[in-house]
Amino acid sequence: MRSDGDNEAGESVTIYDVAAEAGVAASTVSRTFSRPGRVSYSTAEKVRAAAERIGYRTEAVARASAAGGSATKTLGLVVADIANPVFIEMVRGAEYAASQAGLTVVFSNARENGKREYEALNRALPTVDGLLLAGSRLPDTTIRTVAKQKAMVVMNREVRGVASVVIDQREGARTAAEHLASHGARSIAYLSGPERSWADGMRWTGVRDAAAALGIEARRLGPFLPTMTGGQRAAETWLGSRTDGVIAYNDLMALSFMQTVQIRGLEVPDDVGIVGFDDLLASRLTRPQLSTVVGPLERMGATAAAHVMAIANGAQATTDRPVVMPARLIARGSSEPQP
């Protein structure tokens, strides 16, 4: 089937042009846009980049919306807690992808409150074309119920039966544990975050698996609030039973943890190596700088928005497995001695 879109020069651009530009089959291009999740992350990124270069995708999506696939030209985005900087990048990516297709994003902040999140979803249902959930704390059953009523994609959490886009949290945490072990850590504490956080569970699994494979001790502390206050309380708990290394649920906790133990007279990383998650700007402003694990958060938001728009326009959602994006460790002074 031939699918056309016009580039800026007014020339007709087809999926065959995109395929040639990306070096893939036309069927792969078709699946990238019509069957979200059926193409690997790296291949989908190659196709989207090629489509953008030759002016295909944005115009094609906008044309589909103009044809009646989108009724309100609005997406609803509910965030677990906008005070957590990690969500800002997701919001930025989703808003950009939506605006490129002529849609507006309506934003709601749940403030780590399940009831508030559920109420926000119910208000949004009749007024938007699709829903994005960022770090949702709602039960899986509730999310599945809402997804049956409206096109939906969940970010930063895997929900069986619902289209999801996630970062490989387990692999990221495993890499962090291996990194600490390579610098002499024989015991690692994981400072856990919200109990209903999918990412928290995956990170602990990664730490635990790495420790078992390496023959070192892994200990889970918490849960704690994913905030500076939570990090301080985690440090106070940890000081009663210290470990060689610490992996925190996020950078906010890790930064506060590091500040607290330094005030108590400990040297980082000599007395304890520390790794966080998310690569906040503040992580590069401390002494020592904070090691961290990060994924392409802005791209996650853009990918999730592209998927929910495709689903709203009639594409079949892929719900049997999430789109998984890579995580990488950024090693800095908090986890390895500097020359």
Automatic annotation (TrEMBL):
UniProt-listed SMART domains: HTH_LACI
Protein's recorded name: LacI family DNA-binding transcriptional regulator
Keywords tagged on the record: DNA-binding, Transcription, Transcription regulation
Residue ranges of domain HTH lacI-type in the record: 13-67
Classification lineage: Bacteria, Bacillati, Actinomycetota, Actinomycetes, Micrococcales
Molecular function GO labels: DNA-binding transcription factor activity; transcription cis-regulatory region binding
Species whose genome carries this gene: Rothia koreensis
InterPro entries: HTH_LacI, LacI/GalR-like_sensor, Lambda_DNA-bd_dom_sf, Peripla_BP_I
Pfam families membership: LacI (PF00356), Peripla_BP_3 (PF13377)
PROSITE patterns recorded: HTH_LACI_2
